[in-house]
TrEMBL record:
<dbReference type="GO" id="GO:0003677">
    <property type="term" value="F:DNA binding"/>
</dbReference>
<dbReference type="Pfam" id="PF03965">
    <property type="entry name" value="Penicillinase_R"/>
</dbReference>
<dbReference type="InterPro" id="IPR036390">
    <property type="entry name" value="WH_DNA-bd_sf"/>
</dbReference>
<feature type="compositionally biased region" description="Polar residues">
    <location>
        <begin position="1"/>
        <end position="25"/>
    </location>
</feature>
<feature type="region of interest" description="Disordered">
    <location>
        <begin position="1"/>
        <end position="31"/>
    </location>
</feature>
<protein>
    <submittedName>
        <fullName>Penicillinase repressor</fullName>
    </submittedName>
</protein>
<dbReference type="InterPro" id="IPR036388">
    <property type="entry name" value="WH-like_DNA-bd_sf"/>
</dbReference>
<keyword id="KW-0805">Transcription regulation</keyword>
<comment type="similarity">
    <text>Belongs to the BlaI transcriptional regulatory family.</text>
</comment>
<dbReference type="GO" id="GO:0045892">
    <property type="term" value="P:negative regulation of DNA-templated transcription"/>
</dbReference>
<dbReference type="InterPro" id="IPR005650">
    <property type="entry name" value="BlaI_family"/>
</dbReference>
<keyword id="KW-0238">DNA-binding</keyword>
<keyword id="KW-0804">Transcription</keyword>
Length: 163
């Protein structure tokens, strides 16, 4: 079996930006603490190579660990990278909001498509789960729904709370 990471067609050429997510079939939106910190460093720094990222992390990590983390984030489609001389220069491909929007979209898509149950029952279960997780969050969800409806329908939210 051939190692696709060694495939020259998936490797960027000198000075050529790489396509985010190349070599990856599907993005994995679950991010670990280290991945989130690396993304945060790149958002604040702009462009950086492995060494520059490593120097800005809260914990000293081996160069190869940082390099592997950056490569994983690139393969997930979250980073751009460009070969400059002998090093890759990385930059964030998506904002924090864009990442969370994609995570939420993927979560909802999987929630509804992986179940054989009726959508109304799934919605009811989702609302119950949010309520059990954080009652205040249920109020926030209701407010967000009202606001989204107003934006999508081009009308103002109901001033009395929507009763």
């Amino acid at each position: 079996m051939a190692d696709s990471s060694k495939n020259p067609e998936t490797q960027p050429q000198q000075g050529e930006p790489s396509t985010p997510g190349s070599g990856s079939k599907q993005p994995a939106w679950g991010l670990g603490r280290r991945e989130r910190e690396v993304l945060s460093v790149l958002r604040s720094q702009g462009n950086a190579n492995v060494q520059q990222v490593a120097e800005r992390l809260s914990t000293a990590l081996a160069y190869t660990t940082v390099m592997t983390t950056l490569d994983r984030l690139f393969k997930k489609g979250l980073l751009h990278r460009e070969k400059k001389d002998r090093a890759f220069i990385y930059s964030a491909h998506l904002t924090a909001r864009e990442i969370e929007e994609r995570r939420a979209s993927d979560l909802i898509r999987r929630y509804f498509s992986d179940s054989g149950e009726r959508p109304d029952m799934l919605l009811s279960c989702l609302v119950d789960a949010v309520h059990h997780y954080d009652t205040g969050m249920l109020d926030q969800l209701e407010s967000k729904i009202r606001s989204a409806r107003a934006n999508y329908l081009g009308s103002d939210p109901e001033p009395d709370g929507g009763s």
